[in-house]
Structures are given as C-alpha cells and as structure tokens.
C-alpha cells in the first residue's frame, strides 16, 4: 500500500518540526501509523493542520503510540468529563471554577513531568478553541542542544547525572501527595535522578535532559555553586537558539511531540479570551 502521507520541513530547522499532510483520521491503517511514527522520531515534533477531529478520534489515534499516562493535572483541575485519557488545558470557568488546567499564564521551557521515574514518551495536543492572539507554543530540539555543545561543555556533561526534587512544582506549590520537607537543602528531599545526557530508546541519539527548571535541580557530585553555574550555561545554550519552531494555533491544529528529545513553552494570553486544548500523553521508558 502506498502511504497517504507527504512530509515537508517547517521553519528554522528540518529536525525541529514537520507538517504531516494527507493523513485521514477517518481512514488509516498500520502503514499510515508507521509513517507517522517514522516522521515523529525523525523530527521530534510533527503537526497536523486543522485536523478537526473529535475527542474519541484523538484517544483512538493516541493509542497507537503507547499506553496512556495520566498527567498530574488530570487529578486536579484538568480532568475530562467523559474521556479519562484527556487532559483539559483551559482558562474557561464553569460554575465559578476552572474547567481545565494552566489558566492563561506563561509556561516556561520544560520537558513534561521530568520529575517522574519514567517521563512520558509523547504528547498529542489538539486546539479546541484558540484566542485571537497569544497562547503560542514554542518547541526546540534537545538533540540539537547536545550536538551543538562546545567541546568543553560536552566533556563537562559526559556521564553526569542530574537530581530533580519532586516535592514542589514550578510555581512553588506542593505536589499532590507531598508534604513540607524538614530540610532546607532540596538535595535531601524526595526526588529522582536521571542522566544529564539521555540516549533515546528508539533512535539511539543523545539529547540533553534539563527537565523544567534550574530550581531544585542539582548535578550529582558537584558543589551547589559548580552545579548552578553549569546548569545556567546549559540552559542558556539550549534555549538561546535559532532552532525554534513557533506554533501559532488555529482551531483543530494538532501538535505531537517526542518528550524524550524536545522542550516546549507557551506564551501567556488575554484572560478575557478563551483557550481550550485537549491533550493525550503516552508512556515512556526510564531515561538512560
């Protein structure tokens, strides 16, 4: 069977994002899914423009890329009323309460749930309603970040591990099920250790793994000052790059990213506007 998919590179760098054209969400087979997976692994981020699919179709499509993962925000304000696989990201209010997660504020650079033992492999985000401006999503490749490291930095990260505390989120709120730690040193808190450079489980390529913040992150075996200085340098190198894809959303757009080799962020937007996104998340391996 001939694949129905044609791929073209979009903006900045060909391995940051690729548009997938010709995919029929009402009629696809195993060969089509294999082609999508190939492009997803090649680019790290792929986009389906104005796909206009339903929640049920999104859940069914996502199922082909791994077991579902419940995002922590789904256990709080981001649960979907009929599809437990879907995280609702929305600033809309219902009965005086948020109808989804994240509101209208900026989301800074991060990989998803970096503080998990097994962070998710992928995410599929669909635009249900978009504001007239703002709320753009930015993507970068942590393959590129690693590949372009100057030799001294590449030597500095080789074989290193990074500790992430998992007690507080990026806003300073206690995570679900956590209690206030007694120690002032976050290195003594509950957390997880991952390689600072992870090897992708499917492509075999190396990528920097910086998580989602320098707060509560420590390069194991270094002093706090040494670790903070190196992490600041790595974050600056990774995020100050021309290799960034900017997604300006249209209703029905779908972005699908590989959480093992990308980072993303979101612009804030006018709280008087409504932005509703539905997201599914698929399971991943423990970083190595």
Automatic annotation (TrEMBL):
Taxonomic source organism: Rhizobium esperanzae
GO BP, sorted A to Z: sulfur compound metabolic process
GO molecular function: metal ion binding; taurine dioxygenase activity
One Gene Ontology CC term in the entry: cytoplasm
Lineage of source species: Bacteria, Pseudomonadati, Pseudomonadota, Alphaproteobacteria, Hyphomicrobiales
UniProt keyword annotation of Iron present: yes
TauD/TfdA-like domain ranges (all copies): 20-281
Keyword field contains Signal: no
Family: Belongs to the TfdA dioxygenase family.
Protein name (database record): Taurine dioxygenase
A Pfam short name: TauD
Keywords: Dioxygenase, Iron, Metal-binding, Oxidoreductase
